[in-house]
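Q: What would this chain look like folded?
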Amino acid sequence: MIYIDKKKEKEKEEKNKKMLYSGMVECPECGNIMYPEGGCWFCPVCGYSPCK
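A: My prediction, written as structure tokens:
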């Protein structure tokens, strides 16, 4: 079980790095891709924004 968890964590880290380099950010609430809006980030699915 620990090996599987570490493998999934590594895959998630790689995905996050790719998203950051491409300008995409993952929503911490629902996991959807967030979009820049008004100098901040906004999730169109759940409405999360770190600037609220």
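Residues 2-42 form one domain.
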